[in-house]
Every structure is written in structure tokens, then in C-alpha cells.
Amino acid sequence: MPAELPRTVKVLHQVWVVAGQPCGKYLAAVMGTTLANMEAHIGSEAFGRARSRYSPLVHQQLLAMSAATIDRLLAPFKLSMYPDGKSTTRARRNQYTEALPIMFRIPDIDWQPGLVAIDTVAHCGNSAKGQYAVTPFSGASEAARMPAPVRSQGKQVTCDFLWRFLMEMGVGWKNETMSAGRDYESYAAKMRQHVRAGTDMEVDVRFVDMMTKRRSRVLDIGCGIGNAVNGLRARGHEAYGIDPTPQVLEVAGEFYDPSWFRRMTAGDIVPGTLALNGLPQAYDAVLMSGNVPAFLSANELRKIFGQVAGLLDDGGVFVVGTTTAIQGGPVDLDNAAARSSLTLAHRFSDWHLSPFYTESPWSVSVFSATGSREFAEVPGGMFALRG
């Protein structure tokens, strides 16, 4: 194996993303043109984190690669970006959906008037995370039976079948839906009011600003209405925010620069997806506050820790703020960190550096990447006296 091959593979990942993620056959055909275009735009981070690995030798190795070699070397990277899909029949339980009986098959239906929820299989790509819609239907006491089950062995029920089924059963469509997630419209309205009232919502901003060097690059996962991104930008940092909820991102766009934000999930923070969304692929700090871990499964949390570890520069920090005694609390965070290269550096009970105890209702955890951070500021607040 040539000495430069590991560097070449990293550059190959970036070339593949820039070229539009083609197969090896097509990438080999356009390799020379793609490299020339990337070199022409090297100042705009066309090579991303792979820029330091690019050299004349790497250039020669890329041009000499066969289609089969390209596909073989890209296979692990493709798998990390597009893992196997998942299917599930129910979203995370909550007080609203638990109040409605699920109609698994016809004999289970309560024939008295009331509400019943149609539960269909949700095919959610490579993540079961997300907002599920549960539509309540009002049942009639006089209804005809149908032999076919509503849900059978993981087969997805089509809307057409459901509509005909409901019509034949005399079930009326209730003109409202219930979401298994948060009422995002109300949340967005509340946060919009906080911004207009001048409420201090930058305590996490001051925390991150204290821990990072000037002009750091920061990614806020679950940025909400963008107040942390705005606060970090005001302090000279290059901050970006991602959030999967359009309602809160709409508020962020009202008050701040929309170019700072992207509609993405926490699981989207892989170099290829970030590049496709026009975001940097290396950061000095990653922030995840506001109970985001509470809405992630253990597997999703472990995956995100691994992804964050790959994004952080040497000595970079991953700052997580969440409720202690629920899913995604310190125990779950530490278990996820143990599967990654990140290590717990600090833990506090609030954003003001108060000591953390097991009974503390809130936790602020700081996980550090390998390596050491470089602070170029002089004197950096330190005036050491000579002995």
C-alpha cells in the first residue's frame, strides 16, 4: 500500500461528494475535471477538511485509480452516510397518543362512539426519529365489519384503502390531527415573544464563548429560533445552526440572517451532508442544548457522538445541556461518549459553572476531542509572574 494512500482516501471522499456522489465508473471518468475545478476554487474550501491532505502525489494516485478501486475505497464512507433503513410502527409514546386506543385489527375496535387512532407502519429511512401524525377518527356504533386487518405483518396500509375502509365502516373524519411531537406552532410563537421582549436567552452563548478562542467555528445542533447562533455571531464567531422544525426556523429567519441556518436533523451531521448543505465540515465547538438528547434513542445518541468526534478539530469541545433525570441525561451521554473518541472534561449543574450533583435537575456536560487547543490570543487574561 503506498504511503500516501490513507491521505488519498480522505481526499477521495471529498471529491466524491463534490462530484455529486457518482459511482466509481463515472467518478473515474470525471476525476481530472473535478480535481481541476476543486483546485480552481481551493480558497472556498472545495476540499474541506481534506485540503491539508491534498498533494501532487495524492493527485496522481486519484487520477490513476480504477473504477473498481474507487468503489472499494468509498464503500465504508458510503455506509456511514447512508446506513441501513429502519421501519417502525409507532413513534415515541406520549400522553396524547396513549389516550387513544390503537386499531390493530377489526375485532379490537370499540364499537361505542368515541375516538380511535389508525396506526400504520412508518418507513422512516435510516432513522426512526421524527414527528408522527396520529389522526383521531370518530367511530359509529353501527358499522359493518371488514375481514382485512388494518395492519398486517408490517405491510403499509395505503391511504386509498384506509379511506374506503373508513367510509364502509361509517367512521367520520375528525377535522383535526394530533401530533406525537411538540406543538411547534405554539412553541415558535412563545419563543418569538421572548425575542421581542428582550428576554436573556444567551446564557449558553456566554458559556461557549468563554470556552473557545476568538473567531471559532461553532455548530448548534437543534438551534431552535437561532438565538445562540446570533449571540455567537455577535461575539465574532462563525456560527451555524441546524434544526429539523420549519416552524422555529421560520422565526429564526425573521429575526436573524437565514443563511446561518439549515433544516437538518441531528443525524445529518456527516461531512458529505454538511457539504451538500453548504456548511463547514470542521468545528472548534459543537453545541447541543435545550434537551435535544431527550428526543434521541440510545443508538442515535451514540451515532451523533461519533459524528461530532469526526467534526471537531484537535481539542474541540462538544457542549451538551439537558435535563438530568430523563432519557438523554448524563448517564446516557457518558455511555455514548464511551463509544467515541470524546472524553468528559467538565460537568456542571447550570450554565454558570455551579457544581453538579446526582440530584441536580439540569446538567451541562463538556466533552473534549483528542489533541490540544491553541489559543492565539495574547495575553489571554493571564499575567503570570516570574518566580
Automatic annotation (TrEMBL):
GO BP term, example: methylation
Molecular function via GO: methyltransferase activity
Alphabetically ordered keywords of this record: Methyltransferase, Transferase
Domain Methyltransferase: start-end pairs: 218-316
Gene3D superfamilies: Vaccinia Virus protein VP39
InterPro entries: Methyltransf_25, SAM-dependent_MTases_sf
Name of the protein in its database record: SAM-dependent methyltransferase
Source species: Arthrobacter stackebrandtii
